[in-house]
Predict the 3D structure of the following.
Amino acid sequence: MSILIKNVIFNNKKKDILIESNEIKKIDNEINISADEIINAKESKAILPGFINCHTHAAMTLLRGFADDLPLNEWLFNRIFPAEEKLTNEDIYWGTKLALIEMIKSGTIFINEMYLFRGIEGVACAIEEMGIRAVLGICTDDFNFEKVKEFKIPQNTDLIEYAIAPHAIYTAGEKVLKWAKEMSDKNDMLIHMHLSETNKEVMDAIEHYGKRPVNYLNDLGLINDKCIFAHSIWLNNDELDILDEKGCSLVYNPSSNMKLASGVFRFEEIKDKRINICLGTDGSASNNNLDMIEEMKMGALLQKTNDIDPTSGKSEDMLKIATENGAKALRKKTGKIEEGYLADLILIDLEKPHFNPCYNLTSSLVYAANGDCVTDVICNGKLIMKDREIEGEKEVFEKVKEISKKFI
Ligand SMILES: [Zn+2]
């Protein structure tokens, strides 16, 4: 399979880009060869690397708007967890499909996903069918641990790599965390976990373990460069030093952090460290959408407001954490447009009001546009959205409407 993209705007210049198999084969001023698919962008579309969403709970689309404006603990324990008990594994499959449609339509090609362990087979199936990449976390806590231990981890595929996802220190005890570390070491698996999302989590850790969350995890030997920690808001300087020394990835989740009033990620202080900052939307019950373009804007504005400094949270930093830093965290040769990189690319419609005039594409993208500007999505060398059309979209909406009736 080969795709030739003609007359596309790349780094402010008109280029042709050839994709062969799942790779960016050639970028040149003009390429004249035949290809299985030719897309003529007619200089009205720009090309960008697809977005990498580093913290998601895809099927939470089913609970979008179900519980808003509540404190995190009440939201999670009194509303979300009881509602999730009503979800069947088939519901999780359809909810994941809905999320993936929304993600593809706003330019996401790679997710770092964790959701209810019992639904993991349906999640994997939805991902393969929709054609995006995922690091799929095997989500474990004290309650499901015995079942998770018996789970035979499937083979990684072209699109899916399995990871270990202990939910958080307040749901997964020492036994679970030690096992996660062992599995990660033995099978070279990434670890994806919530960390220090609220001040309460830190206070509880001090009360129960006599130490702060990062010290607790570090003493268990769990912290290394395979760790991707979501939220990571309530960290003191000693904890940052540990995460820096170990070369961890931290996920900035600005919309969720604002909506649940969790706090503010220390972006400007962390960005020059060895710590790799990436961007995530979190689940759509706490966001409530999965649009990475909007997330970049939220990320930028939150930093400026918090620091009372308009130079904080620059648009180019937001684009970097939404693309190449995500690729680094998830260990794939994607997130950049270069020959030899994976063909995970999106086309942006420059004939939208948001891009007129366009003095700086990154600025227009982050501050003015939203996910609706994405016209075409290529992932792993395959065209998975063409002119905003995705196969099977209507059926998914109908199924989700049916499922939502149980919450009315
Ligand atoms: Zn989360």
Summary: The two ends are 46 Å apart (CA to CA). Residues 51-330 form a domain with the TIM Barrel fold (CATH 3.20.20.140). Residues 178 and 190 are 14 Å apart (CA to CA).
